[in-house]
Specification:
Methylamine Dehydrogenase, Chain H, about 550 residues, about 35% strand, five-stranded mixed beta sheet, alpha+beta
C-alpha cells in the first residue's frame, strides 16, 4: 500500500511495518511505535488530515509521531482489517477479512455482521455510488447495501439491515473477489465500479442497475396449528389446548425475492412492529385467550415497502375456567358459602368451628395439590420451550445457552471446545420435489441420527434453523471432532433417503463444517460459530457431502 498525504509525506505499508519518506529520509514504524500489528493492509487519509492505518491486528490513527490503536476491545468488529473508506459525511468505514463492517463516528464504533443482515462478513473493498449505496466485495460475490440504512441501524431506527448480492447469475465469472491487497476495487471517473476477482475484472455501472419502485405483494401462504395445516381463508380459531401457531408468509413474484424484507405485528399482543429480515415464518406458543389480528408487511430489495401487507384474524378460545361467567359463578358460590357459614356459626358456633376446620384442611390440601400440579406443568413448559417443535431436539435458544455455558467452562479449564455446523445438501430441491411433509420427515430422521451419535452429557445436538443443525462437543480436540462429524455424515448417508434432485448423490447427504478452539477470555464464542460457518461454506464449495475443518488459528 502506498499513500501520498496532503503534507507531501509518502507512506508505504508492508508486512514488516509502516514506512514514511520525507525529503529523501525514510522512517519506519512498528508495534513499538503503537501499531497494533506490523503487517499493514490498508491506508487512508481522512478530510481532517488524519492518517488511518489498517493492519492484520487492528486499526491505528497517527497522533504526532505515535499511533493510537483500536481493536475489538475498543468496539472494532474485527482485527483483520481489509479496507478503510471515508464517506461524504466524514464517517469512517472499516472492512475486515471475515468479521464484518464497522462505522467510526465521533469516537464510537458501530458493528455490522451477518447477524444484523449483512450478506457476508467479508468486506474487502467499499465503493459508494451516486445513489448513496455501498458496493462491497467479498469471497462470495459483491453485495449492495444502503448507507442510510446502515446509519439508521446505528441510530436505532431499524433492527435489521438488508443487502442485495450479485454473483454468477448476474454475470460474474467468479464470486471469489480478491481483497488481500489494496485497493481491491476502484470507482472510475465515469462512475463505474471495478472489482478484481479470480475470474477477471468485474465492471458495474450503478446507474444501469434498475431501481424497483414497485412494492412487493405480500401473501400468507399457510398456517400450522400444533404442527397440522389449518384452513385460514376466514381466519383461524385455536381451541383450548392447541398452543402452537405457525404462520408462513411470502412475497411471490417479486424481483430478487430472496432479498425481500418483512415486518410483522400481532395486534392485541405486540405494541410495535418486529423486523424479521428475510425470515418468512413466525411462531406463537401459548397465546392468551382473545381476538388478535396478525399483520405482515414487506419491502423489496430497494427498500420500497408494501404498507398494506396481509392480515390474518385469530381467535383463541378460552378454557371454561377462563371465562367471565365461570368467574362470576365462583364469586356467587363464594358469597353463598360465606352467608351459609355465617348463619350456621350463629346457631352452632362450636359445630361450625369443627366444620370450618375440616373445610380449611380440605381446601389447603386441594391448594397444595394444585400447586404441585402447576409446578409439574411449569417444568414441562420449560422443557418444551427448549425443544424444537419439529425434530424434538434442543432448539437454537437452548443451543446458545449451552454454548455460552461450555465456552465459559472451557475458558476456565483451558480445554478444547469443538463445534459442528451442518446443512442438508440441496434441501430446497428436496422440498420442491417431495413436498414439505416429506421434508419435515427427512429433518426428523437426520435429527435422530444426531441424537444417536451424541453420547456424552457434556455434548449437545440442536436444530440451528431450517435444514441446519449444530453439535457442541466439549473437551474435544480437532481430531475427535472430525471423527464425530464423519460418523454423523456417514450415518445420514446410510439412511438412504432418496433425493433424485441432489447434485451430490441419489440419497440425502450432509455437509459439515468443523471448528475447534481453546477459548481465551478476550475471544468470543461468536468467533467459533463464524469459523464453523466458514468451514461449512468450504465443505459446500468443495463438493458437499463432506466434512471440512477450519484450519485457521483464530483463537
Amino acid at each position: 500500500m502506498i499513500l501520498r498525504d496532503c503534507a507531501g509525506n509518502l507512506w508505504v505499508g508492508g508486512v514488516k511495518g509502516l514506512f514514511k519518506e520525507r525529503d529523501g529520509v525514510w522512517t519506519s514504524y512498528t508495534v513499538k511505535d503503537g501499531l497494533p500489528h506490523n503487517e499493514v493492509t490498508a491506508l487512508c487519509e481522512d478530510t481532517r488530515g488524519n492518517l488511518w492505518i489498517g493492519t492484520r491486528g487492528g486499526l491505528a490513527r497517527l497522533a504526532g509521531d505515535r499511533f493510537v490503536s483500536f481493536t475489538e476491545k475498543d468496539g472494532l468488529v474485527g482485527g483483520r482489517t481489509r479496507c478503510i473508506y471515508e464517506d461524504r459525511d466524514g464517517d469512517l468505514w472499516i472492512g475486515t477479512f471475515d468479521s464484518g463492517l464497522s462505522r467510526h463516528r465521533d469516537g464510537q464504533f458501530t458493528s455490522y455482521t451477518t447477524r444484523e443482515g449483512l450478506f457476508n462478513n467479508g468486506v474487502f473493498q467499499i465503493l459508494e455510488d451516486s445513489r448513496d449505496n455501498f458496493w462491497i466485495s467479498c469471497n462470495r460475490g459483491i453485495y449492495r447495501v444502503s448507507r442510510k440504512q446502515l446509519n439508521d441501524y446505528a441510530d436505532g431506527k431499524v433492527t435489521v439491515i438488508s443487502c442485495v448480492a450479485y454473483g454468477k447469475p448476474d454475470g460474474m465469472l467468479s464470486i471469489e473477489c480478491n481483497g488481500e491487497q489494496q485497493p481491491a476495487g476502484i470507482k472510475a471517473q465515469d462512475g463505474k465500479l471495478w472489482f478484481p476477482t479470480q475470474g477477471g475484472v468485474v465492471v458495474i455501472d450503478p446507474e444501469l442497475v434498475p431501481y424497483n419502485s414497485e412494492p412487493p405483494p405480500v401473501l400468507i401462504e399457510s398456517v400450522m396449528i400444533s404442527g397440522k395445516t389449518a384452513s385460514f381463508e376466514n381466519g383461524v380459531v385455536l381451541e383450548p389446548g392447541l398452543t402452537d401457531l405457525e404462520i408462513n408468509y411470502s412475497a411471490p413474484g417479486s424481483v430478487k425475492a430472496e432479498y425481500v424484507q418483512f415486518k410483522y405485528r400481532l395486534v392485541g399482543l405486540d405494541d410495535q412492529w418486529t423486523d424479521t429480515g428475510r425470515q418468512r415464518a413466525v411462531r406463537y406458543s401459548h397465546l392468551p385467550p382473545g381476538r388478535y389480528s396478525f399483520k405482515v408487511i414487506a419491502a423489496n430489495s430497494d427498500g420500497v415497502w408494501n404498507e398494506t401487507g396481509a392480515t390474518l384474524e385469530i381467535y383463541k378460545r378460552p378454557y371454561f375456567y377462563q371465562t367471565g361467567w365461570f368467574f362470576a359463578l365462583c364469586v356467587a358460590a363464594f358469597l353463598i358459602i360465606v352467608a351459609s357459614v355465617y348463619a350456621l356459626r350463629v346457631q352452632r358456633l362450636k359445630a361450625n368451628e369443627r366444620r370450618l376446620t375440616r373445610i380449611v384442611a380440605e381446601r389447603t390440601a386441594e391448594l397444595v395439590e394444585r400447586t404441585e400440579q402447576l409446578e409439574v406443568a411449569n417444568d414441562k413448559l420449560k422443557e418444551l420451550a427448549s425443544l424444537d417443535g419439529l425434530t424434538n431436539i434442543p432448539n437454537r435458544r437452548c443451543f446458545a445457552e449451552f454454548l455460552h455455558q461450555e465456552w465459559m467452562r472451557s475458558v476456565r479449564s483451558q480445554t478444547p471446545l469443538s463445534l459442528l455446523l451442518m446443512d442438508v445438501d440441496h434441501f430446497k430441491a428436496y422440498n420442491d420435489t417431495y413436498g414439505h411433509q416429506s421434508g419435515d420427515e427427512c429433518l426428523k430422521r437426520v435429527a435422530a441420527v444426531l441424537n444417536e451419535s451424541i453420547k456424552r452429557p457434556t455434548d449437545l445436538a440442536a436444530r440451528y434453523g431450517g435444514e441446519e443443525f449444530v453439535v457442541v462437543l466439549s473437551d474435544t480436540d480437532k481430531k475427535g471432532a472430525l471423527k464425530v462429524a464423519e460418523t454423523i455424515r456417514s450415518r445420514v448417508e446410510t439412511l438412504r433417503i432418496p433425493h433424485s434432485e441432489s447434485k451430490v448423490s441419489q440419497y440425502v447427504t450432509l455437509s459439515i463444517g468443523v471448528a475447534t478452539a481453546i477459548p481465551r477470555r478476550e475471544s468470543g464464542m461468536d468467533d467459533l460459530v463464524s469459523a464453523a460457518d466458514q468451514a461449512l461454506y468450504r465443505a459446500k464449495e468443495n463438493g458437499r457431502n463432506r466434512c471440512w475443518e477450519e484450519s485457521e488459528a483464530w483463537v
